[in-house]
């Protein structure tokens, strides 16, 4: 499964990069395939391990601010691995064809 999520602290003002970095650090230290862009962090793995990473990422932000917003989108597709890159590769292939 692939989960794309965004975790943001609430009530700390506009500069949230330091808090978001705490969440991304948890994801990167998990060892699961992941990618971070301007809006979301995506992580790929089995249900329990991915949800554990999301939970710990939220906890890392919550520990510093007390209130957190979480947006989560999941692609649950048993048996698929390397979806984090293969889905993008497919789109790139179509773009290069035409």
From TrEMBL:
SUPFAM superfamilies for the chain: MTH1187/YkoF-like
Gene Ontology CC, one term: cytosol
Domain Thiamine-binding protein: 3-92
Any matching Pfam family: Thiamine_BP
Classification via InterPro entries: MTH1187/YkoF-like, Thiamine_BP, UPF0045_domain
The family this protein is said to belong to: Belongs to the UPF0045 family.
Name by which UniProt lists this protein: Uncharacterized protein (TIGR00106 family)
Organism: Streptomyces netropsis (Streptoverticillium netropsis)
Lineage start: Bacteria, Bacillati, Actinomycetota, Actinomycetes, Kitasatosporales
């Amino acid at each position: 499964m692939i989960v794309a999520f965004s975790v943001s602290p609430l009530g700390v003002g506009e500069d949230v990069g330091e808090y978001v970095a705490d969440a991304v650090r948890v994801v990167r230290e998990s060892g699961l395939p992941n990618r971070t862009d301007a809006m979301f962090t995506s992580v790929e793995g089995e249900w329990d391990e991915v949800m554990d990473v999301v939970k710990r990422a939220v906890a890392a932000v919550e520990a510093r601010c007390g209130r957190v917003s979480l947006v989560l989108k999941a692609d649950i597709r048993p048996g698929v691995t390397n979806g984090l890159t293969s889905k993008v590769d497919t789109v790139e292939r179509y773009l290069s064809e035409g």
